[in-house]
Design a protein that fits this description.
The structure is a single chain. With 794 residues, the chain is an alpha+beta fold. Among the domains are: 3-34 and 529-793, Alpha/Beta hydrolase fold, catalytic domain (Rossmann fold, 3-Layer(aba) Sandwich), CATH 3.40.50; 434-525. The protein is 20% helix and 31% strand. It contains 15 helices and 44 strands. The strands form 11 sheets. The chain has an 8-stranded mixed beta sheet, with helices on both faces. Strands 1-2-3-4 form a 4-stranded antiparallel beta sheet, with no helix packed on it.
Length: 794
């Protein structure tokens, strides 16, 4: 699609007139209550007559629960009296669809659908979760922490489904020479022991045969910690995930608070840093609650479990002199005695409890397996292995069972894009969808006939609702809103509730027929003051890349009176999170920045907001281009963007700046240090300056660990390139940031001092974490950014 066609498309989706007056910095950085809240977390009532959704209160972080009738639009806040009869989200239904169960305020409720009667199952200080109906619909099961309970619907009795203790089994006694001698010598002792064992046998028989008794406990020993549990709907089996209790989670440093209510400095624990300690490996247990047996499930048959995908990388680092350790042997070959550690991500039982699927991840995140369980042989049976030499995408790993419980479905990025697959256990997988687009959030209809999905089929930046038959067929488009942020299928499968937005309208609630058609908007939560503003058209452009075939989709902002005969200063915005998409037709994460960009255009700047390589929405290769080289492909894309502006949009090549926060701050530093001839000024907000200081989960995916791959960290950390700074640099950081630590910016600041650089500034915000929440801080930060650009680019 050409740039002009894209602009024409966007014109249909946004208001066409320029603002009557330019937005001010005060407005753009004010508390967003003046805009109006977005609709959050919509879900259907269990009878399908109403939609519930959450809405933030003005002047407060409190969310009110709303209930709206989609037939007539009648909308109201659920007050405390009404809450007693309200439905909760994520309701589950009995197999005969006569009852629904849900969690509300941490308690379990069951509603009779024919009469509407609501039964409260629990009223406790604990938080119940994971409610499910039993396989025969006679009970509901629910979890408290990692303990499972069952509620008999006929009798109303609550009882533990299993009792699992991380203690030694008191009945287990090791053989003792002295004790054996005593029993051999004294017949009375033998009689006492025999009588005790007879009583125990009788007691066990009564316990198993008498349903009114609590079950006998299971003992896992004192060395483990339970991380999660999953009870089968037939209450026959319990899966338990444990870790070694003694596993060292790594050094925890202290985060300093300077501005406090007490007037004294205060501290809190920080997070573990990358490579300091890997996540603890998990062990998976299968408990048979009827036979009262417990077995560890072997991982040995998972394909690739004994491979070492980092062997070549360690060798490369050794040859470069960056690793001083010596390999014990040729660690490129599998070692059956040293399987890779795994974590168990999720366990999903089918409806009758006859099968369970388990998703496991290698701790190095190069492999993801979906396996079923062979109950007789106590082992995992691999059903699907997804492997990636870079890292497994954490965004596309949904999986589950068909409604009849016979086949598996799952998302996989194996084709290069997230697509939907089904397979019978032991059979061959079948791709239900295919193409150069992303499938996410699959939801099965109540009758199991349809999968509903969110997808960007039309264009990478346009998201809509689609459906496909669960037995295969054509992917059908249901909506044409182009900014579909989320959805919920009604209990009867006839309608779908939508979260839909546009570039300048926060997510609103809509409804559409499940078979497709025009969606009907049910809410408009914007304030009158915000609705009175008329925003310019959103222009999405495709910037040609000089490094890859695909274009770099971007948002372009130009002055309303743009004159191609003049020369303009330009600013590039670099979105954060790395794996995030900001060039799309929905309401952006960076709505303040979007207003700031319009402010910049009113002051004579051209602004380009790019979805550089590593951004979401463009497939696996775009995502993993940064593997072991963060800051390099992205910088190539930013330079392409700057050159494209000079060649096509009257931008002065000597007056280009950039800014961004978090990952965007990291990239602003890489640009200022590694391409000072392109970028004259930059603002790095809450930036990562040295990846060895960031967290483990995110960083080790992309750069491995500093212990395995110091080469990747050296080429990816801005502090290593600080000597290249020539232009003006602003660093701004929340001083109680518990994500990217303030220490990152302080260390870089000291490095710049020692390098005797003379045009840099550090602004610290004592009461801000990673995402600023106070309007004064937002205003001060962007006042400084504007001043930087006015000083260096005008």
């Amino acid at each position: 699609m050409t740039r002009f066609a894209i602009a024409a498309l966007c014109a249909l989706l946004s208001l066409s007139a320029a603002p009557v007056q330019a937005i001010t910095l005060d407005q753009a950085m004010a508390n967003p209550d003046w805009i109006g809240p977005a609709v959050e977390s919509p879900y259907w009532s269990v009878d399908g007559t109403a939609i519930y959704y959450s809405l933030k209160r003005s002047g407060s972080g409190v969310r009110d629960l709303h209930r709206i009738n989609p037939a007539n639009g009648e909308d109201g806040v659920v007050d405390p009296a009404m809450m007693a009869n309200a439905d909760g989200r994520n309701a589950v239904f009995s197999a005969n669809r006569q009852r629904a169960a849900f969690i509300r305020n941490g308690d379990v409720f069951v509603r009779e659908l024919a009469s509407g009667m609501l039964r409260q199952v629990t009223r406790s200080q604990e938080t119940e979760s994971s409610v499910q109906f039993s396989a025969d619909d006679r009970a509901v099961h629910f979890r408290v922490g990692n303990d499972w309970f069952t509620h008999d619907l006929a009798s109303g009795v609550n009882a533990p489904a299993a009792i699992v203790l991380t203690e030694k089994d008191p009945a287990e006694k090791k053989s003792d020479d002295l004790g054996d001698l005593q029993l051999r010598l004294f017949s009375t002792l033998r009689e006492i022991k025999a009588e005790r064992e007879t009583k125990k046998t009788i007691e066990e028989a009564f316990r198993k045969g008498d349903p009114t008794r609590a079950p006998a406990p299971f003992y896992l020993g004192t060395e483990v910690k339970i991380e999660s549990t999953a009870l089968s709907p037939d209450a026959r089996h319990l899966l338990i995930v444990t870790r070694d209790k003694a596993y060292d989670d790594g050094k925890i440093a202290k985060l300093q608070h300077y501005v406090t209510e007490s007037g004294y400095e205060e501290q809190e624990d920080e997070r573990v840093r990358v490579g300091r300690n890997l996540p603890a490996p998990n062990t998976l247990w299968l408990l048979d609650l009827v036979a009262h047996t417990q077995e560890k499930l072997s991982l040995a048959e998972l394909p690739g479990i004994n491979e070492d995908p980092l062997a070549k990388i360690r060798t490369e680092n050794r040859k470069a002199g960056l690793l001083k350790d010596e390999p014990a042997k040729d660690d490129s070959k599998p070692d059956a005695d040293k399987p890779r550690g795994v974590t168990v991500a999720e366990q999903v039982w089918n409806r009758d409890g006859s099968q369970v699927a388990v998703q496991l991840r290698a701790i190095d995140n190069k492999d993801r397996w979906i396996a079923t369980v062979d109950f007789g042989k106590h082992r995992l049976v691999n059903q699907h292995r997804l492997t990636d030499p870079a890292w497994i995408n954490w965004s596309f790993n949904d999986f589950g069972w068909s409604r009849d419980g016979r086949s598996l479905w799952y998302l996989s990025e194996e084709s290069g894009y997230s697509q939907l697959y089904t397979k019978l256990p032991g059979g061959k997988a079948r791709a239900l969808t295919s193409g150069k687009f992303e499938i996410s959030d699959p939801q099965l209809s109540a009758d199991g006939r349809w999968f509903y999905v969110r997808a960007n089929v039309e264009a990478p930046y346009a998201y809509d609702l689609y459906r496909i038959a669960s037995n295969g067929g054509t992917l059908e488009r249901i909506t044409s809103v182009k900014g579909m942020d989320g959805f919920a299928v009604s209990p009867d499968g006839s309608r779908v509730a939508l979260q839909q937005s546009t570039a300048y309208v926060p997510a609103q609630l809509g409804v559409v027929a499940a078979s497709g058609g025009a969606s009907r908007q049910l809410t408009d939560t914007r304030t009158d003051a915000y609705k009175a503003l008329a925003w310019p058209q959103l222009e999405i452009v495709s910037v040609p890349s000089t490094h890859v075939k695909e274009p770099i989709y971007s948002k372009l902002y130009k002055p309303a009176d743009f004159d191609a005969t003049k020369k303009y200063p330009a600013v590039l915005f670099v979105h954060g999170a790395g794996y995030l998409q900001n060039t799309e037709l929905g309401y952006p994460n960076y709505f303040r920045e979007q207003m700031f960009h319009n402010l910049l255009t009113a002051q004579g700047y051209v602004v380009l907001d790019m979805d550089y390589r590593a951004s979401a929405g463009y497939g696996r290769d775009w995502r993993t281009a940064i593997y072991r080289q963060m800051g390099h492909p992205e910088l190539e894309d930013l330079i392409d963007g700057a050159n494209w502006l000079v060649a096509n949009h009257a931008v002065d090549g000597k007056r280009i700046g950039l800014y961004g926060g978090s990952y965007g701050g990291f990239m602003a530093l890489m640009a200022m240090f590694r391409a000072p001839e392109v970028f004259a000024a930059g603002a790095a907000l809450r930036p990562v300056t040295d990846w060895t200081s960031y967290n483990h989960e995110y960083t080790s995916n992309i750069l491995n660990t500093p212990q395995d791959d110091p080469m990747a960290y050296g080429r990816s950390s801005p502090i290593e390139f600080a000597g290249g700074l020539k232009g003006g640099l602003l660093i701004a950081h929340g001083m109680i940031d518990d994500n990217v630590l303030f220490q990152d910016s302080v260390r870089l600041y000291q490095r710049l001092i020692e390098l005797r650089k003379d045009d840099f500034e550090l602004a610290g915000y004592p009461l801000e974490r990673h995402g600023f929440v106070h309007a004064d801080s937002w205003y001060d930060e962007y006042r400084r950014i504007l001043k930087l650009f006015e000083t260096h680019l005008k």
